[in-house]
Amino acid sequence: MYPWRTRITMGKYRIWNAVRAALTGLLLLVLAAVAPAGPRPPGVTLVSCDRSGAVIEVELPAFHQRPVSENGVTWTELSIPGWSHLLDEGKPVLPQAGILLALPPGSRPSLSVEVLASHTLPLASVLPAPTLEVDLKGASREVRRPEAAAYASPVPYPASWAELGPVARHRHFWVVPVTVTPLRAVCAGGQVLAADRLRLRISFSGGRTGQLLPDPHGESLARQSLLNYEAARAWQEKAAPLPPRPDQSYGQYKVMVSHDGLHQIPYADLLAAGIDPSGLDPRTLKLHGRATPGSAVLEQLPLWVAGEADGQFDPDDYVLFYGEYARGTYTDQNLFTRANVYWLDWGGSPGLRLGQRSAAPGSAVLAGAYQASRRVEVDTLYEKFGFASLIEPVDHWMWHRLDSNFEPQLSVTDSLPGHVIQAGRDAQITAGLAGYTFNDSLNPDHRALIKWNGQTVVDMTFDTQEHIVASGTVPWNQITPNGPNDIVFEAPPVPFMPANSFFLDWLRVDYWRNYHVYNDTLAFQSPQDMGHGWLRYQLTGLQNAQVELWNLTRAERLVDFTYQGGQLAFQDSASDTTHYCVAGRGAWLRPDSIVYDEPFDWNNLAALGVDYLIITHEAFYEGLAPLVSHYQGRGLRVQRVKVGDIYDEFNAGLKSDQAIFDFLQHAYHNYAPPAPAYVLLVGDASWDYRNYDALPYQDFLPTHAIMTYKQGETASDNWFSDVTSDFLPELYLGRFPVNDEEQLSTLIQKTLAYAQPLPGYWRSQIIFSNGAANPEDDGIYMDTTVQAIIEKYLPSWYDPPRVYANPSAGFEQYQGNSQDLIEYLNLGAACVNYVGHAGNQMWVTLQQPEIAQLTNGLKLPLVQAYSCFTGVFSNTYGFGEAFILHPGGGAIAYCANAAVGYLYTNRSMNDCFFQALFDRPDSLPPPTLGEAFTAAKWNYFALHGFDPGEMIRTFVLLGDPGGTFAWEDPNPADTLDNTPPQISITFDTGGPGSGGGLVANPVRFTCEVFDSTMLDHSSLSLELIHLADARGFPVDTAWTWTWEADSSAPPGFDFAFFPVDSLGQRFQLAYEDSLAAGEWQFRMAMADFFLQGPTVATANFQISDELRILDRPLNYPNPFHDETSFAFELTQPAQVTIKIYTVAGKLIRTLRVSGASGYNVAEWDGRDEQGDPLSNGAYLYKVIARSGDQQAEKVERMARIR
Q1: How many separate domains does the chain show?
Q2: Position with higher pLDDT, 560 vs 992
Q3: Are residues 914 and 1000 in the same domain?
Q4: 282-297, pLDDT tens digit by residue?
Q5: How far apart (Å, rounded) are the C-alpha atoms in residues 130 and 1098?
Q6: What is the pLDDT of residue 8?
Q7: For residue range 1146-1172, what is the model confidence (pLDDT) as tens digits?
Q8: Cβ partners under 8 Å of residue 129, min gap 6
């Protein structure tokens, strides 16, 4: 609860009249400000700097030794206040400081170290850095496991006192991190070498002149993060423009194709797409498509246009082309879409046409068979693959998982159409496999068998989570002609492995087949075993005499072939790789759609330049207009771009995260200066790009996926902001992870209100919450982390509110739970800082469903979470999303890991973020959220010289990057107050505090009053008026109450008084009672001791005597695994029926409960009427409330996953 809060009755308020004069004098007290800012750790001094180099001196500050016990072993942790740590799994944890130096552009830095004073410290058992252990379900823990070689070595660790990191681009600056480790461990000797004083000389050789460049949005970032900013201001260099983009103006109509084959565009389809065919010359029709998978370069496709010779596109004319579905670069199908995009245009020069050549059959050798391929891939399972390659991209969507214990076999049936039985013509089977289980000490730990009609054709082993291609030969006499053939994949037990489990990704069979045509179409090729020359072909099985025969390799339409009785004969000169297509008219495909593409003026955008760039899914474009106006009003160049236009311009129309990056990189390097600074991505993301899964998550605007250490594929929005490709952000990037216009409206309303934040003490409040597993181990680490931050960045007298789940010794007074944290949050805060264990939908001290209890309104904090996964937003409704999307309050922004968080790296990033927020030079204005977020990453890079724990790449900002941090120093004013009290009224049921919201009995609301000096409680007056009855007839009866000496709280009311402190004074009033139906009004008035006010607050509300279900019924968890709960709110008691349906409308379960007036919860075991658990997928549920002859009902959606 609140250790500094006192609860008293109204009668005891009279004591404050006696001390009013004394307290008035105290208001003139001025306290010390936060210590001056600077980008240097304690003990680090920049002695000199010019174009030849820099000299830095390091004096070893006092360091601490703390015993840490784990598994019966006691280690010593070394630390220096204000410093970070050197982190390398299993090796000694040692204090490390880092700074960032700017270089002359293009220069090469080198480092020399001079030890001016040193000593040796006897110290055995230096604490090893934790090692991350991850199980197959992704659960992780950190364990102390010293690396044997490191702890047996007589060589000091690390190898040097200081190091230079990689040179990087910091917007217009070239920079290098310098890290120093003045305590080095000699583990074998039980010693620590201590450098009491070091001199570092960093020399700059070569390089270019540089210049002073205006960068209004980057200057404060550079000033804060570069140690030698003043000396290096004139060393800036604008990045060289990228080469001009190729002309992609290939038409305004997109032709979408999802299958390989001959496609027809008839007159009617053009007309339906909004094209008037009668007004175009068909001879000028052109179609462009991608040259190769992954390429954004387009090339013209040869067409066949029937009837074009007369220059008119008549109703019976049509276009033919050979289209293909979208291929991937390392997967068969494109990751994001199967539908390929072709661009249709006309006018000007004639379009490219197929050549036409005679293929009359002659006496050439008859082609008997060719080797065909059948590929099958079914994507049903997603896997992160935490132990797969961190470098090579891998497919994450799998077909089936085999397990030697539970499901050791999978049988697949294939018919191999047209198979030719001939001695020596064996088939080849190939399959993509990926490991699931693993054992670091066993190699190999997988064995895979593939059997064809009972005969083993593949028996191979592989290791860990490797992605491998298994292949084998299928003897010709083991193949059943035209099927069925039974292909069995098997995971046999592996010695010393608890389970042998791996995935099947895809299957391909290469076999010899004849030239029989099925379904009136066939893509085929010349025989691979007959070399070059003339060959005669006999195709059978055709059904339509109107046949098209194309040589795809030479782009020719073959004519003069013979056709009789379904048989087509032709002769052609071919190589062993010549490909053909034959199709009867009934088998010609039609494009999925022909879509007009609205033109976008990219040249104008480049000429205008941009400061604040919004990239949005088309569904949210119009709703962003208020945000655009807001930032334009602040003088920024704001541009709003639809992500579909980016796909069109930068990836030939195909959806791609790479296209978004290419656009941002192009804009940063080529647009009119100054370079872009702010980027807002609008739309939620999902790794289920093509809707394989039944979960209701849509990929409106993709994130970028990176492979992270032992955690596999992870979202990285940071990748978009790294336009110089060094993993460090140049852009201040955030995301609105919205799924509908309502969510977008909520975020925009919050953002606009945050630009003019409500006055009050909340803007000087920071809430700290720790979620340790136990007080002795991680509890000590987390509590001391927070204490160090408070002592480093906040005034000594400032004791912020804290809620700790398992506090360590000395911090027991902060013991609390979620309700305590909710109380603090509802009072409002500028910042919330969580350190502890977590998941993507919970903190230890707060569960995601409890966010709905937040009523802090527009007193919105910036929330930072240093934990695991709470920043995840792709393919889930994450904790951070719930915080910022909560309409009744919540947060303005949420910053957290989208991956696993380590104790040390979390601690380091936490310090870096606080430095960015609170340790700024006095000359700088308050930071924007995006600037502080980006500065924290640069501070982290400076401290470590690289990106330990992938914190830079996976730390995300959910929210608007452009809002200015709404912080006020917690120092009392030095002048008399001239601001009246602020009053807010919040209802716990129904709508907000005004506007006729409908509420249920018992009526519950709270009032909060804040004044920057001191409230005059004698001025308090309350009035509750019954304006009209349930039928609307005036009642106009009022109950009033005014403070008097020795009076107590009136019936139904409860008061909470917060004693005066350096942050001002607050007063809370809570009301709970049942009222008659009709329209009501509550009024409250209060003034302060300086005669400001009284402030009058009014709230109107309605109570219905009709049965209603308030707001939307909710179920939690949603999606659920085994069980879930339904929550709903009633205006009066009723019998409630909850019916669960499939999305097809089939009733599968009925629940009946008695509902009370107000909030109700009904539990469900997740099973149908027969007691069977539900399958994965989406479901509907209807809540029906009945009372007498009254009935109310509402319908909602939910999803079930395993």
Answers
A1: 7
A2: 560
A3: no
A4: 999 999 998 777 776 7
A5: 57
A6: 24
A7: 899 999 999 887 778 899 999 998 888
A8: 85, 86, 87, 88, 89, 90, 91, 92, 93, 904
In this structure, are 860 and 986 located in the same domain? no
CA distances, 684 to each of 52, 147, 396, 663, 696 (Å): 48, 42, 20, 19, 12
Query: What is the residue whose two structure tokens read 């217009």?
Result: 172
Q: How far apart are CA 377 and CA 335, in angstroms?
A: 13
Q: Is residue 736 part of a domain?
A: yes
Q: For the beta carbon of residue 935, count every other beta carbon within 10 angstroms.
A: 25
Q: Is 501 domain-assigned? A: yes
Predicted TM-score (pTM) of the model is 0.79
Mean pLDDT, the chain, rounded, equals: 88
Contact 768, 802 (CB under 8 A): yes
d(C-alpha 1147, C-alpha 1179), whole Å: 10
Q: How does DSSP assign 266-328, residue by residue?
A: EHHHHHHTT--GGGS-GGG-EEEEESSTT---EEEEPBEEETGGGS---TT-EEEEEE-PPBP
Owning domain of residue 777: 615-974
Cα–Cα distances (Å) from 839 to 142, 217, 708, in that order, read 15, 35, 17
Mean pLDDT of 120-143: 81
Reported as a single tens digit per residue, the pLDDT across 913-959 is 999 999 888 788 999 999 999 999 999 999 998 888 899 999 999 99
CATH number, domain containing residue 179: 2.60.40.3800
pLDDT digits (tens, 9 = 90+) for 547-594: 999 999 999 999 999 999 999 999 999 887 899 999 999 999 999 999
Under 8 Å between Cβ of 807 and 775:
yes
State whether 398 and 442 are in the same domain: yes
Burial of 474 per CB tally in 10 Å (0-12, 13-18, 19+): buried
- Burial 780-790, CB ≥16 within 10 A → b, else e: bbbbbbbebbb
Query: Among positive and negative, which fits the CA dihedral 330, 332, 338, 339?
Result: positive
Residues 679, 742: one domain? yes
pLDDT on residue 243: 84
- Give the pLDDT confidence score for residue 24 in this predicted structure: 31
Smallest CA-to-CA distance from 1086 within 981, 978, 979, 976 is with 981
Q: What is the pLDDT of residue 1061?
A: 39
Q: Are 87 and 188 in a shared domain?
A: yes
**Residue type at 282?**
P
Q: How far apart are CA 1059 and CA 1068, in angstroms?
A: 12
Q: How is 1124-1150 classified by DSSP, letter by letter?
A: EEEEEEESS-EEEEEEEEETT--EEEE
